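Progress against Task 2.4 (sequence-to-structure conversion) is shown through the following example record, which the project officer requested during the mid-term review.
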Amino acid sequence: MAKFSRQFLQAMAQPSYQEGLFSAARELGGLRGRLEEERGAMQRFDQLSKATDQGLASRFSGDPNALAVNIKSLEKLRDAAPTLQEKQAIDSRITQLRGMMPAAEQAGLKRDVTAVSQIDNVLDGLDARTDISEQQKLQLKDSLTLRKNQLLENPEIEQGYRQDQVNAFQFEQQELAMRESQYIRENAKTFLDAIDTGDQAQIDTAMKAVPQEFRLAADKYVTGAIRNNEIKREFKERSIAMRTAPMTEAELQTIVDQLPEDVRENVAPLVQQYRDAAKGWSDSTGQWTTDGLNKAKAAEKALQSRIATLTDQVLLRELDTERDQETRRQLKVLEYELQLSAPLDRMAIKDEEMRLAGQDKNKITPEITAEAKQNVRSARDSAILDQMAVLNEERATELREGVLQKPKPSQAAIDALIANPELAPEFEEKFGYLPENLEATVSTDVGAGVKFLRSLGDKDRASRQQERQVSTQTATGFTPRRMFDL
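C-alpha cells generated for the chain above:
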C-alpha cells in the first residue's frame, strides 16, 4: 500500500493548496472545451473549403445544378455556424458562388452545343470507319442521332446549334470567296491571253485547267472579259492608227454606251479630250492640222488604256459584289431551312387542339394532339417554303416534297425507345406513331452508344421541348447538320 510523507499530508490540509488543485482542474476543463471548439471550427472550415472548391469546379465545368447543390451545402453550414463572424464569412462565399451561376449556365450551354457538333463529326466519319461492322455502324448512328435529338430538345441548345450552322456557313463562304478572288487574279493573264487570240479552243483549254471549286467564278470572269474584249476590239478597229481618220461622234458614243456606268463617268474627261483632238481632222481635205494627229493619237491611247484598265477592275469588283449577293441569298435559304427545324409554337398547338376538339378541352385526346402538331407544322412549313421559293424554287420544291413525310424508324430506334420510354414523345413526333408493344425485349445492344452519348453532355429533361428538327440540306454545297437522321 502506498505511503505519503507527513509533509505532503500536512500540505494537502492547507486551504491554499486545495484551492490550487481546484483552479488547475478548472483550467484543464476549459482547455478541453477550447480544444473541442477549435476542432469544430476546423471541421466547419474544411467543409467550407470543400464546398467552395466544388462550386468553383462546377462553374468551370458548366454544371449549374452541381453549383446549386454546393450553394445549398454552404447555406446549411452557415445556418449551423455558432458565431456571427463565421456566418458572415460563409455568406460571403455563398454570394460569390451565386454570382458564378450565369457563367456556369453559359459554359454548360456551350458544352452541350459542342456535344452536338461532336456527334456530327462522329456521324460524318462513321461510314469511313473500318474497325466496326456495318451493323455496329447502324446501331451507333441511331444511338448518336437519338442523343443529338435529345440535346436539341432544349431550345437554347437548339438555337445555339442553329447559330453555329449559320456561322459555319458564313465562314466557309468567306473563305471560298477569298480563294476564288485570289485564283482569278493570279490567273487573269492566262484567261485574257486566250481571249485575245479569239480562238475558242484556247479559251476552252484555259477553262479545263480550272479546279472545280473555282469553275463558276472563272466562267463568270471569262464571260465578262470577253464582253470587255469586244469593246476594246471595236475601239481598235476604229482607231486612228487603223484608218487615219478619227471615230465619228456616233461611233465614239456607241463604244461609250457599252461601258459600265461608273467606267463611263470615270473616262468622261478623256472622251472629251478625244473629241477636242478629233477637231483637228478635216473631212473635206482628209488631212490633220499641224500637231493635230499627234494630239489625237495621244488622246486615243490614253482613253483606250484607261478603258482597258477600268473595265477589268470593274469586272473583278462586279464578281466580288455578285459573290457577296449570292452568299447572302444562300444564307437566307439556309436560315429558312433551319426555321423548318425550329420548335413549334405551343400556343398555336393548343389553339389547334381546341379547334379539333370543338372548343371542348375535355375532348382533347393524344390523337387530337398529334394531329394538331402535324397541322401546325404543315401550315408553318408551307409558309416558310413559299418564302424560300422566291430565292431558290428548286430547293423549296425538293423540301416541300419530302419535309413532311414521316420516315420509317430503324430497329435500333425502336429498341432505344423500349429501353427508355421517356423518349416516347420524341419518337411519336419523329415517326408519327408509337409501337404497340413497348415491353418487348431489346433486340440490339445500344448500351455502348448510349454510354458514349451520355459522355457528350446532358441537360435537364424537364427543360426540353417536344418539337424536333427536320432534315435539311442546302443546294449551295454547304450541308447543315441534320436534326433527324434516324
